Amino acid sequence: METKRFPLSATLAPRNNLVTKDGLLRNAYHETTPIGDMIIKRPGLLTTWNAGLGCAEGAISYNGKALVVVGGQWGTTTQAPPVYSPGTSWTVYAEQTHPGPGLTGAQARTPLLGSLGGNLYYVGLAGSGATNPPNVYKSSDNGTSWTTLITSPPWTTASLTNFPTIATLGSTLFIALNDGGGDTEVWGTPDGSTWTLRASSIFPGFLPIALVAHNDGKLYAFFNTAVYSSPDGATWSLVTAAPGWTGRIGFGVWSLSGALYVGGGNASGVEKADVWRSTDNGVNWSQIVVTAAFSARDSFAYWTYNSKLWLGAGKTNVAGTACESDLWSSTDGITWTSINVSFAGLAFSRMCFCNHNGTMYVGNGFNSTPRTVDVSFFAAGASSPAAGTIVMTPFAPVVTTCEPFSFTLIPASGSVPVKVFLKTSLYAWVYDGTTMTQVTDPDYPASTVPGVVYLDGTIYVMNSQGVIFGSDLNNPTSWSALNFISANSEADAAPGS
User: Fold this and answer.
1) What tens digit of pLDDT does each residue of 9-38 get?
2) Strands 382-385 and 366-367, how do they pair?
3) Which among 111, 124, 190, 220 counts the fewest CB atoms within 10 Å?
4) In terms of CATH architecture, what is 91-385?
5) Radius of gyration, CA atoms only, the chain
């Protein structure tokens, strides 16, 4: 099967390197040719991988694996489907104490965690009597580090007696919270810094239990026994005042494959484990499970991910002194599968959570034993990557430009495995399957044009003057200033001379 070349619809340089689609590789790579930019389609297995890191800068197959470069970071994966189950493995992030020490369970409010435009947002919420402001933070590196955006938000902090909720619709992050007098305020932001009051009420005199974005392009606010919807967070319409389920608080809400789901919660002191579904955008509801496989609970974490409903942790009594730490998933809301018996480490209720850049995130909420002492919050308590996710590592030195990489394979020799030589115009590295080693020899050219070749034990690169430089024999990290090839031209001698 021959390799096919297809013209590139737009060159890489002017494209927005923040757009997720730029990190989409489909068994192909970019190449600059004499007739213009090309996308080269590899024969064989089709692999789709969405990095969500920015500009796709190249990939190469070796030893049954793939080395990919996206957004100035590199990672490898096997070409065969990996043996991995999302939610079974979680990475704990560094503790981000917020909003500060001294908050008790009666005063504190669990934060809100949301995703917008490739960034992770953390909206801290202080309760009545709290002495610390509810800051808003942003992480541009998937929860590793955080920047404070605002310390004095425009909404009132006088009386946050209920637990606010958060959702992303289009290019706006929305939160719904108590206005301090028992009614709902809806705020929206495009960037976490600038917030606009969208609505001063949804269901007068009542506070929503959950807020979710649906595939019909609307936000849905769920109350004790009512459902409202809005296309913009400002104008709200009643969808149903009689959904059928018993009035409850602390339930979970999901939007998946065109259907809306409601499950669990506390109905007048009784913990629930039932699940309800609507296939007509919340107008009519039917109970699809009376008692699901997960234990009855309320105030749990819930989200959709990988075409499944997810449910984790939560409290199993009104007082909150008994909590779960398990994790469950379902493709249809009927059959639930236990994924992890203790994904959060400790038993928590009212955890913050979201799906961000192909990864599930949760943050610590109320710990069950005891619930009245100081509560520590985490900016992003833990995350679980997608099936087949490649662990990405930034290059050293840092690559900041969206530039196609050039690759070539160095054949195996004896016990030395196949290696990959890869380069940009300014830097070069050798990857041995484990370690990415920069070429730091001062005789390596300061700047090169795209392209690299391996021939008979030597790596060859070229500069913009057409001079070809070669590495030392069988040592791609060592270069000699005398090992180069240049073109010379001489005038023809006069006839008869």
Assistant:
1) 444 444 444 433 344 444 455 555 655 555
2) unpaired
3) 190
4) 6 Propeller (2.120)
5) 28
